[in-house]
Amino acid sequence: MVQKDSNAGKKPFFTFAQKIVISAAGTIIAAFLLKGLYSLFDIIPKDTFTTPMQIRHFEFIISVIHVLVIATFLIISRTDIGKPSSKYSFDKEIAKYAFEQFTRGWRYIWWAWLLLYLWLSLYFGQKYVNISIIDFRLFKAIADTLNTLSAIAFYNIFLVLDVPSVPINHKKNRAEAYYQGLKIATIIGLTVVVISIFDHYFNLENAFAGPLLVSFYAAISMAYFFGRLDSHILDIRRWMLAPLYVYVVIQVVWFTFWGTHQPRLEFIFLIIALILKIYLFLVVTNWLQNGKIQKYLDSATDDNIEPPTRARSGLD
């Protein structure tokens, strides 16, 4: 029996038009705050973050902070504090397996990010102590690969929300769109990584096309997922999604100044990226605990048939 929505018939707290205005106002305010944050650095002496040692120190510390925060999130996600709610009762058994796919994919994102920032910490750490073991081209190649892996994980959870993702014994093609979509996303991701690696190895400091493609690939994966969250079934306030789209913008423009010795911009964007990662973890964890994601999968599932013993994720 399908659960009746307790919010049915209630007047929304904000109308659609009001939500649009609030989101736009929030974006404008955020832009001014970013401008103000950047202007605060005028207080810092001009020679700050200009020597090689200062830059190495800054990059190493901020990478280590990312590692600690992400590792903490992964630990929390395994505790009662961060685990999805077990109180939600699925109306359709198959939606339960789709939810397992989603939570596995969600963890894959954070594992890929953890590996990425561990790699950044190793690279910047060796520069900080004046040791040169990891070549710059190898560093960029692996960093782009790990960034792409996190993007593939984003495509995965988007597809779990977007199309049927759990196969059924007597209906093998039920999850065909899911596996086909994930296969295409993976092939494109691997192609982008290969192009980026060749670009770094042949152009070194002047690499452009490869990093650009990786940035756009990752940004589009995030945009797909964040866009799917804007559903009336999830009933998520649009102003809560606005900061996530800021993350998409950061992902697009990051490659233009990373490693170009613009430390002020690097500092601002790395701090914002860290804040947005924290925000992303908190809001999605909240939606997992209050049953919003579960309700969405229950409502979007068109079959009430028991699936195989274990639903296999495309990333398994």
Architecture overview:
This protein has 316 residues and is an all-alpha fold. It has 9 helices and no strands. The protein has helices at residues 16-40, 52-76, 93-128, 136-162, 176-203, 209-228, 238-253, 263-289, 292-300. The longest helix is centred in the middle third of the chain and has 36 residues, at 93-128. The radius of gyration is 21 Å and the shape is globular. The two termini are 32 Å apart. Residues 1-16, 40-46 and 307-311 have low confidence and may be disordered.
Specify Rg, calculated over alpha carbons.
21 Å
* Global geometry: globular
Please tell me the overall pLDDT.
76
Structure class: mainly alpha
Q: How far apart, in Å, are the first and last alpha carbons?
A: 32 Å
- Major β-sheet, in short? none
Q: What is the H/E order?
A: HHHHHHHHH
What is the tally of beta strands? 0
Task: Kindly estimate the percentage of residues that lie in beta strands according to DSSP.
Answer: under 5%
Helical proportion, percent range: 55-70%
Low-confidence stretches: 1-16, 40-46, 307-311
Describe, in short, the structure shown:
The protein is mainly α and 316 residues long. It contains 9 helices and no strands. The chain is 67% helix and 0% strand.
